[in-house]
Protein: Cysteine hydrolase family protein
Organism: Janthinobacterium aestuarii
Amino acid sequence: MHAHHPALIIIDMQQGMASPAAGSRNNPAAEHQIAALLQAWRAADATVVHVRHISRTPGSPFWPGQPGVEFQAALAPLPEEHVVEKNVPDAFIHSGLERWLRVRSISKLVIVGVSTNNSVESSARTAGNLGFATQVVADACFAFAQVDYAGTPRTADEVHAMALVNLHGEYAQVVTAADVIDALSRP
């Protein structure tokens, strides 16, 4: 593995996220972009980390043993790729991820996955606060529609855009898949 390349952190790309029961979402091409990034990282022999949510709530689609907890087949980890299991939105909390990255001298991260305003945003904030040079790939993340605190319905695009602006410049750099694939190919 090449430690000078950033690690690709793929968050919660599990079967339960593809279920219509998950709600109205944006960026239907996110899985395609994540697959393109995964292919580029594998071709570069760069570090890939797959994060999956294991719920502590009985009945959750992410409860152990439920089909929803399994990785989406097209994005499933290879045996040599690291898998991190988490029980809260933030991939760094109680997971050993920070130590795993530091032991390998990895200081740059590219974060993708779901949902932009929950696990992606939470993990990217922590990564930035821990001093990792962090990028979030806008077109390789997606969010779900929500009602905001004031009771106003917000589209998935609005939720996604707000989460990205919360991160950009302070915790992470928001980029596109083409940006990071291009940077990965440069020496």
